[in-house]
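SAMPLE LOG
Freezer: B-3
Tube label: C17
Construct: single chain, 782 aa
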Amino acid sequence: MKRWSLPRSYFARMLLSLSIVFVLIISMISIAIYYSVDKVMSQTVENMSQKTLSQVSYSADYMHDSVRNTAYTLFNNANVIQYMYQKQIDYVDILQGVSQLRTWADTNSFIYSIYVYNKKMDMYMSTVGMDVAITNDQFFDQEISELMRQQVVENRRLMPIPRSTKLSLNGVLQNDEVDVFTYIIYDLQSADHEVQGAVVLNIKAEYLKNIIRSLLSKDQTDHSHLFIVDEQGEIIVSSDEGIEENTKFQNDFIDKVRLSDSNSGNFKTQLYKDGKEMMVTYVTSDPLGWKFIEVVSFEQIYAPLYKIKWITIMVCSSVLVVGLLSAFLVSRQVASPIRQLVGRVTHLTKTKEQTGNQGELAFLSESFAATFQRNKYLDSEVKQHRKSEVLRNYLTYNGELSFHSLSSSFLDNQIRIDTERCYSVILLQIDHYDKLNQTFSRNDQSLLRYAIQNVSGEILGHYERLEIVDLEGEHMVILVNPEEISEERYLVNMKELLKQLQCWSELHLKISLTFAIGGYQKDITEVNNEYFDLQHLIKYRFIYGYQSVIHKSMLPVSEFQHEATIVALEEKILAELTRGSFNEVIQSFDEMLLLLKSGTYKQIISALTHFIYVLNNRTMTLQNNSVAKFDIDYEYFTKEITEADTLDEVKIRFVLLFKKIVAGVALKNEGRGQLIIDNVVRIIEERYRDPNLSLNVIAEEIKMSKVYLGKVFRDAMGQSVSDYINEVRIQQVIKEMQHSDLPVAGIMDKVGIENKSYFYTMFKKKIGVSVSDYRKRHLNKK
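STRUCTURE (predicted):
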């Protein structure tokens, strides 16, 4: 016993000292936590204020964008244009116009009132008040005339003007006033630069006030204030009534906010005579130029902190006392189990064996052993991850590879590719990846790729030297040392195996796969160049469609020689569009696509982009020389075409574009007839799900002869109302098949198709394949 007394005493003293140090550290950490809470709480309040202000700013920007869109829509509305510029308007038309304006106002929660000004008649049409049309000198809102003159002199930006106007209750003007934001959009068509016609929208300021009140809880309102100031520093909306007249409230900090170079931030200030500190947080709306400011009392921020202070002191004192006592008692019992722990560690490290009785730390010893085994497993996983990382780096390396370093790296990382033998590279691409990315989480996507990788290894398992590299996106790469002597035989066998993989993926994962196969390669240092070549090759999915297996032999073998024919077809299509001959346009476009299929991917995209440019020039010419409005965003349309995966998708988008152009040409040629066509198209697109929808129903609804209506529609659109209804339903069936797993019959019921046999026939006639074949071949559905 005497032999072990000194070591045990040493361990006891050491553990006691360490325990005391540990307790002191805990106490210091507790104190540090207290001071950290101060910073965290301030940061939390700042973040909450920033979030609240961002929500208010977003609501204000949303209101601004919605009102601007409404203003431009009204200003370009055919009826409103008549009310602004005609010299005479029947009273019945005025009533009808005001009724339409009130409908606009009622359907938009922001709008308080709408005025339409006609310079020629010197008259206002208003949605409030008992009189629907009032001369300028008798108009109740005389401030508007002055605001329009200021707008002409200062600028023409469509921006909100804070002001007050008369309150209207049930159409009757009151003596009280209501706060509004006024938007004025006008046109100058005279030499003296006077407003000839204008649309005025008065927006409810109460909208922003309500948002501010809803974002501030009852507890906050006593200690915080939220308000909005304009570019001149004037408070236009606030959470407190009467705060606009508090000059001290403004002068202390608003100028500092206005002069700040940052769009958001915070600072401390004292606002009141009693010297209470406040935190000022602000954000800026770039579209409006407004500052959104919240002022929060530090008394509110630190109220909970005082309780934490005393709790922390009590806890630290208790921990210190109890810890010192516990450390003293426990340290006397720990020395013996430490020997057992040391013995076990000695065993794991293969040093001299230690013996002793099992103690309380035996469980910890076994845990160390289990941890050691887990580390071995993790080491295996790290090696596999390292292998994949090495292959990814070589495949994506943009430079010349060294055969010696590559061979050594393959050997060191146990990569099963023989660098001395010929090899082949296969590129796998997941179709509809954007949809998959939106549908599944990142973890679920990893599981799907893992499943594809495992099944690929099983199906291609008879190739002993095979590596599958997950590029962590829509692509995977398969590296293989082929067993076949003949490259042709290898391609036949590999295509068959890849078809099996496609079928399995579609059946079990509902995922479509496209492959690009490279040929036999002898120089392993060219593996990165082969991968880059396959990235180009797989783009020919654009021609061959989803679930294709593409080889270099499928590329065009001769130069593209149809440029002149393509240019002639472009001119032909433009002429047919100008005449409004929709069917001829589609026929010519099909001829163009057929010629383009013999070109390379870059040539096809280049030709389509040039064609879009030509279409843009022609529609701009038609629009500038007539009243036709095509409302086509060619920049967005070009993006859609260049990002389309297949030519079938390209054709669908161009058909819709051609219909818009033909409809615009019809408006140019027929004038009033286009309003009828637009109304019919709107009814069909809104009610295509109704199986009873027909020419008779539409004609009865718009109070027109079905014979005349049918003729006008056919002349303008090149097809009957019934055919257009079926065409809309076809597009909806295709869209539903893209985003739904419903059976085809269920989709038909959903879009209002009763005669399914006739619809099957019509679908095959228009699209070229049956509904089931289209879903299987193009939309990756069973």
